[in-house]
């Protein structure tokens, strides 16, 4: 255990610009503030697997004590992550996975279960014979593969609900809009949509509107983020109907990293809980988020007060020292 922590944590993010990953980074920073002195090396691969590989290689050269990584695509990132692990550097996989079991710990929700929850939710809210459009994430990224498999399993008990069309929106709104423009003739017969994240779900909503199609289709997304532009707001504003909560795990990843670094017991699989949010419980979720935010502000105020007290104490020490010397 290093005394004055000088641990170097490498954090390789597959993309950093969306609200979900910004929220993750905020959580990471709050947890890191409990470990002053830690060196934090953060990289953003901007949706490119080859860039992410290069960034991890560079981190290895810089020297890191632990790697936290969200791999853009499973297969392409497997080799480099195995290399890091085999060097004896602990690896925490967060949210997206590699194709390998060589990692120290995983932090994230169960994406298969998430997809299944979306399927069961849609199945139980739709009546009669219905056609569903599935908008999937980036092919080859593990949550897209697992959410798709879970969704199909979730719908199995509803034989009247059929997945009529599937497209890849790659987690992104413009790509979703492009794909929907391509299949615009099929959209009028769609009764419900499952998009693998809320960003794509809002793209779906925009595409339907652009086609002047009365928005009869139910739209379900994933993430359910609080705040401006988040899924909770989209549900409250009826842009989408529901979203499956996908916790970012930023706090848990840092907490797990320190357990590993300090040789304390830790869980290898840290599966975060989820639930479906729709108009019935969205206000409750918003209230909870407000409360958490207020508590965070209280903590920050307390920290400022402690720092001020520390300052006063230090000044008194100086006065005392001066007296003693004199
Ligand atoms: C953010 C995101 C989320 C999604 C997750 C899957 O970059 O696209 O919206 O839930 O990644 O890895």
TrEMBL record:
User: What keywords would UniProt list here?
Assistant: Membrane, Phosphoprotein, Transcription, Transcription regulation, Transmembrane, Transmembrane helix
Question: In which domain of life is the source organism classified?
Answer: Bacteria
Q: What is the designated name of this protein? A: histidine kinase
From which organism does this entry originate? Mucilaginibacter defluvii
- Parent sequence residues shown: 7 to 332 of 902
């Amino acid at each position: 255990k290093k005394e004055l922590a000088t641990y170097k944590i490498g954090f390789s993010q597959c993309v950093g610009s969306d609200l979900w990953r910004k929220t993750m980074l905020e959580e990471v920073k709050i947890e890191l503030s409990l470990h002053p002195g830690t060196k934090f090396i953060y990289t953003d691969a901007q949706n490119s697997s080859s860039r992410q590989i290069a960034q991890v290689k560079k981190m290895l050269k810089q020297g890191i004590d632990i790697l936290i990584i969200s791999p853009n695509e499973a297969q392409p990132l497997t080799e480099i992550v195995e290399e890091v692990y085999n060097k004896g550097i602990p690896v925490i996989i967060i949210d997206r996975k590699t194709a390998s079991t060589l990692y120290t710990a995983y932090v994230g929700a169960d994406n298969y279960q998430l997809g299944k929850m979306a399927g069961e939710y849609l199945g139980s809210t739709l009546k009669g014979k219905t056609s569903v459009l599935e908008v999937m994430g980036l092919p080859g990224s593990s949550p897209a593969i697992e959410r798709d498999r879970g969704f199909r399993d979730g719908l199995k008990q509803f034989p009247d609900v059929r997945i009529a069309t599937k497209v890849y929106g790659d987690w992104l709104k413009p790509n979703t809009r492009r794909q929907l423009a391509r299949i615009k003739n099929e959209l009028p017969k769609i009764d419900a949509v499952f998009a693998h994240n809320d960003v794509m779900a809002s793209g779906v909503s925009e595409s339907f509107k652009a086609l002047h199609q009365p928005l009869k289709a139910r739209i379900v997304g994933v993430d359910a983020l609080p705040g401006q532009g988040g899924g909770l707001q989209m549900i409250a504003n009826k842009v989408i109907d529901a979203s499956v909560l996908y916790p970012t795990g930023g706090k848990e990843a840092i907490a797990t990293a320190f357990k590993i670094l300090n040789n304390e017991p830790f869980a290898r699989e840290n599966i975060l809980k989820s639930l479906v949010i729709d108009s019935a419980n969205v206000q409750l979720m918003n209230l909870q988020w407000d409360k958490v935010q207020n508590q965070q502000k209280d903590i920050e105020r307390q920290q400022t007060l402690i720092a001020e007290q520390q300052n006063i104490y230090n000044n008194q020490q100086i006065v005392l020292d001066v007296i003693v010397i004199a």
